[in-house]
């Protein structure tokens, strides 16, 4: 059996935890399985490196940031190989260039194009545990790239897919996927299983337990994931296709504070105006989420939308640069907002879910600014100061508590 195991930064934050992970991997190895391990940087290394870079150059080019940040994972994998060798087990550490994990050239947020398997298979055939740097790839210029925060999950799923692994286990510092962030909602309970679609929505909407692109890839290549704690032996949560799974009305509640609302005021009220605005943003790699357009009045209309907080400055620059062409009279923005979402495959066949969510928010005196829906998701924009109260209210309103 071939098993891919991914461990997050908190799981390898110090010497004791590195040896804990090494021993867990060695258990499967000594049971006769082939083991590939994917690691994130130790503890807060990535944040520390970003802070260090900002002291040198707050406007550093993304290529150089990628060169810097990828050193964190190289430290992790090399120390892990040393730990396993100290425990008398053959192990080898490999970075993205040594494996050759081909990626696009977008520094800071690259995507995998293909992954070579020859080196990994050679090392596995030599009965070694293979330890691979997460979070990174190599572009056509032979430059190192990073996949965005949480990208080690995507590395693990990509390897599981190309190696046709029997298991892909994602280890973290929580016991699995919960109905809400247990640090905010004390009554949140662990889910035994969740569908790819539900997990993709939760991951995209602020649940930090899995990188959303890793779930997208897992669904595409039918890689069954297990999310579990590296600190205990609990069974965790299985993420898989949901054809035979019982559909709960609402599976979970997610919140995202890293969002900002932008309003473009006084646009010409004519066909093609909205297309021009959002096509311009898309051409500049700015993702837009919730959209609200006002009713036209006196030949003009307003459009409000949300973007990630990191994209605010870029979005404003792009809009200002195209202000006349897009017929924008004014641009305003609000950073003191947060997204609250409920996700559940059961929503498709149950009317009244939105009403229940709005009732819960009304009872807690939380005002709703914008609303967006899909077949299995309802997202609202609320004041940032109310997000924790709103999460608890909606979680209790749907009876999701343990």
UniProtKB/TrEMBL annotation:
Keywords, alphabetical: Amino-acid biosynthesis, ATP-binding, Diaminopimelate biosynthesis, Kinase, Lysine biosynthesis, Nucleotide-binding, Repeat, Transferase
An example Gene Ontology CC term for this record: cytosol
Pfam family of the protein (one): ACT
Annotated residues for binding of substrate: 46, 73
Keyword Hydrolase: no
Pathway membership: Amino-acid biosynthesis; L-methionine biosynthesis via de novo pathway; L-homoserine from L-aspartate: step 1/3; Amino-acid biosynthesis; L-lysine biosynthesis via DAP pathway; (S)-tetrahydrodipicolinate from L-aspartate: step 1/4; Amino-acid biosynthesis; L-threonine biosynthesis; L-threonine from L-aspartate: step 1/5
GO annotation, biological process: diaminopimelate biosynthetic process; homoserine biosynthetic process; lysine biosynthetic process via diaminopimelate; threonine biosynthetic process
Positions bound to ATP: 6-9, 172-173, 183, 208-209
Gene Ontology terms for molecular function: aspartate kinase activity; ATP binding
PANTHER family noted in UniProt: ASPARTATE KINASE, ASPARTOKINASE
Name this protein carries in UniProt: Aspartokinase
Organism: Dorea longicatena
Lineage of source species: Bacteria, Bacillati, Bacillota, Clostridia, Lachnospirales
């Amino acid at each position: 059996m071939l098993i891919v195991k991914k461990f997050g930064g908190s799981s390898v934050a110090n010497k004791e935890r590195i040896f804990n992970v090494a021993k867990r991997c060695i258990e499967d190895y000594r049971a006769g399985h082939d083991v590939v391990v994917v690691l994130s940087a130790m503890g807060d290394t990535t944040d520390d490196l970003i802070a260090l870079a900002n002291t040198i150059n707050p406007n550093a080019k993304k290529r150089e940031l990628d060169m810097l940040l990828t050193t964190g994972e190289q430290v992790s994998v090399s120390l892990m190989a040393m730990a396993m060798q100290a425990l008398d087990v053959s192990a080898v550490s490999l970075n993205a260039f040594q494996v050759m994990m081909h990626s696009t050239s977008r520094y800071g947020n690259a995507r995998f194009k293909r992954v070579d398997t020859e080196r990994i298979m050679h090392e596995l055939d030599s009965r070694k545990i293979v330890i691979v740097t997460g979070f990174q790839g190599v572009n056509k210029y032979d430059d190192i790239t990073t996949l965005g925060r949480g990208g080690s999950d995507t590395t693990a799923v990509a390897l599981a897919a190309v190696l046709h692994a029997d298991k892909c286990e994602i280890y973290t510092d929580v016991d699995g996927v919960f109905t809400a962030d247990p640090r905010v909602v004390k009554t949140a309970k662990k889910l035994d299983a969740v569908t790819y679609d539900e997990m993709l929505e939760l991951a995209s909407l602020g649940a930090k337990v899995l990188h959303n692109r890793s779930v997208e890839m897992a669904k595409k290549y039918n890689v069954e994931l297990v999310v579990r704690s590296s600190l205990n032996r609990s069974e965790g949560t299985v993420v898989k296709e949901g054809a035979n799974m019982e559909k709960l009305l609402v599976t979970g509640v997610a919140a995202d504070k890293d969002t900002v609302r932008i309003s473009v005021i006084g646009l010409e009220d004519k066909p093609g105006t909205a297309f021009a605005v959002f096509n311009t943003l898309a051409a500049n790699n700015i993702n837009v989420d919730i959209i609200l357009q006002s009713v036209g009045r006196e030949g003009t209309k307003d459009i409000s939308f949300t973007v990630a907080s990191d994209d605010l400055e870029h979005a404003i620059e792009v809009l200002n640069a195209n202000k006349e062409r897009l017929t924008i009279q004014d641009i305003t923005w609000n950073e003191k907002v947060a997204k609250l979402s409920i996700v559940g495959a059961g929503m498709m066949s149950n009317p009244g879910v939105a009403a229940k969510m709005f009732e819960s928010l009304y009872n807690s005196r939380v005002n709703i600014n914008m609303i967006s829906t899909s077949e299995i998701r309802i997202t609202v924009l609320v004041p940032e100061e109310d997000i924790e109260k709103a999460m608890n209210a909606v979680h209790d309103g749907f009876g999701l508590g343990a």
